[in-house]
Backbone:
């Protein structure tokens, strides 16, 4: 267990945004909230998952909804803690720590707000190692741990508990239906996990990984080097495409942000084009019509100059973008995981294609 | 407290279906379930609300959803009792009795199934004195009693608790969203009420009223008299129209059955036409374009021969229908109630118009 330092908050935000694969929501506002809390003297502890007692109880906290809406309806620490406190009340016992459902995007920082408000430590782990759009895509769900009770709350007086669901997909649909009804942004606290379960089924050390990635990008910027190149080298990733956004199509539908964008090539990619499709996160990249990379590869669009990640809700005409792919956690390459988080899990009728395997 | 007799089940079903105002769902299957339970020796007790101890706790049980779907996915006693048992578990205490949310339609009989499975008595009361489509239209909601916790369950393994909602309308929308996600039919158990609250805010003796109405219709049939006329006389109602169904338009949308139908006049109404609009229940009747009756009047379409109520989901071309209006409970004529259950509560931009007041 160690204190997260004030100067780690920005790299954490930068790294989490990259691991968001275009989704997870921009961590900017969550980062600002945490900075203010730190300025006020609050500190959050990061706990090595191996320090967890087997019978400790860990709450997984997250914001749910469409990233586009998240930009307008700001989250705040009190709101983040609300379902966690409701969960303690529902279970009739205290929880021992909090963790992220997804390290990617705003949710990578989200549990730090709940932790700051409750004094609980944050476990250095998540259940995606990136961001995915749906609840059945977590390592916990894929390993068939029960995902209930789930608590969904909004900033007004609404609170919903799901004590039982027939399966992970139904739980996700019920939660998504509630979320849409609450205005497409909600704070959630999922089935608390035992320390043993987190150690066995979590994606471990992902908070540390996000901070590390963020530092690589920031250090390169400081040294006036190419931050995208530095990142790709440090993480054994690959540059898929350099180009300019020619077209973006987006719709906030049934609690998701779905759409596609087209990039026209620049530099070495001049004359080519890249099409990206997303459901909150990027799912497929096609170069001149041919699939070059799919989920669960971490496809990320970055500002070619600053190396700042550009979320699917922020893409706009004319942006100069470098598209990269990073390795997903190995857990997601197993057949039972690929079924859920590969293209077929997103409704496509083709198999996982990795640009990284070919590299 | 008295035992509901086997020969009261059919009049209860007939009367409840009439009080459904076209909605509430056909009580036929619930009636069959109860008959089977009675044949097996089960008996259900009907409790005078005035016998309730002030601190008794009464569960309000109901089926929620689109009537059209309810015809395909049958309810059964075990399913009806499920949210009631979940409520006892959630509250950590036993409940003392059950009651109907709405006496109209299948929900008028629904609590008898839950009662049969749990041995609890049914209170002779409801919260609508008819059927209305939405949860904020109950006397409990209009009198601003808290409507949470609410439990929604389906026949599979899904269960949802709403412990807090900002207001009745939001609670209704959240519940409706969950219901739609569960396939547009769900069993619910709402905020248990104290005996004192039931006595002060319930619509009392509505089970007895439904049985009485059903008996009037059945007695007239047996005597080969006009059952519709007998009903209208016994309940100081009015015949709005006699005609033949020329057109029906229906859509199951967002958990409701919405639509309209047009009747061409017969007998004394020859040459005229009547348009009916419904959201599960009938909301407005227009004769040759002019509004003649609106909710909360109990507008009911009945088979002109048999006096059997015809629900909004059963209307079809060519049926010979008599449209009647019955008095709603006086509670719903108060200004604060009319706001919720009058035409404006259904989204119309005009005021309550009663055919009965003019009669």
Residues:
């Amino acid at each position: 267990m160690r204190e997260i330092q004030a100067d780690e908050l920005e790299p954490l935000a930068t790294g989490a945004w990259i691991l968001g694969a275009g989704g997870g929501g921009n961590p900017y506002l969550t980062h600002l909230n945490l900075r203010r809390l730190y300025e006020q003297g609050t500190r959050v502890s990061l706990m090595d998952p191996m320090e967890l007692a087997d019978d400790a109880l860990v709450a997984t906290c997250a914001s749910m909804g469409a990233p586009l809406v998240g930009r307008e309806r700001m989250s705040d620490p009190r709101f983040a803690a609300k379902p966690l406190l409701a969960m303690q009340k529902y279970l009739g016992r205290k929880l021992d720590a909090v963790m992220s459902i997804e390290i990617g995007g705003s949710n990578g920082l989200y549990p730090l707000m709940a932790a700051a408000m409750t004094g609980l430590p944050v476990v250095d782990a998540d259940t995606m190692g990136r961001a995915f759009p749906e609840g059945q895509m977590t390592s916990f769900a894929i390993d068939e741990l029960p995902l209930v009770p789930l608590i969904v709350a909004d900033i007004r007086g609404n609170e919903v508990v799901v004590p039982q669901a027939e399966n992970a997909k139904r739980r996700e649909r019920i939660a998504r239906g509630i979320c849409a009804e609450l205005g497409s942004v909600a704070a959630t606290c999922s089935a608390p996990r035992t320390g043993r379960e987190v150690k066995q089924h979590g994606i471990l050390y992902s908070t540390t990984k996000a901070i590390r990635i963020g530092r690589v990008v920031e250090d390169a910027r400081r040294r006036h080097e190419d931050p995208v190149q530095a990142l790709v080298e440090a993480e054994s990733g690959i540059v898929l495409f350099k180009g300019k956004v020619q077209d973006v199509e987006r719709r906030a539908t049934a609690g998701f942000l779905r759409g596609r964008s087209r990039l026209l090539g620049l530099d070495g990619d001049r004359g080519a084009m890249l099409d990206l499709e997303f459901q909150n996160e990027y799912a497929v990249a096609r170069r001149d019509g041919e699939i070059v990379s799919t989920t669960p590869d971490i496809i990320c669009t970055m500002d070619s100059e600053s190396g700042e990640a550009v979320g699917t809700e922020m893409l706009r005409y004319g942006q100069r973008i470098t598209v990269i792919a990073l390795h997903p956690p190995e857990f997601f390459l197993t057949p039972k995981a690929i079924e859920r988080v590969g293209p077929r899990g997103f409704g496509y009728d083709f198999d996982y294609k990795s640009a990284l395997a070919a590299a």
Q: What stands out?
A: The radius of gyration of chain A is 19 Å. Chain A has a mean pLDDT of 93.
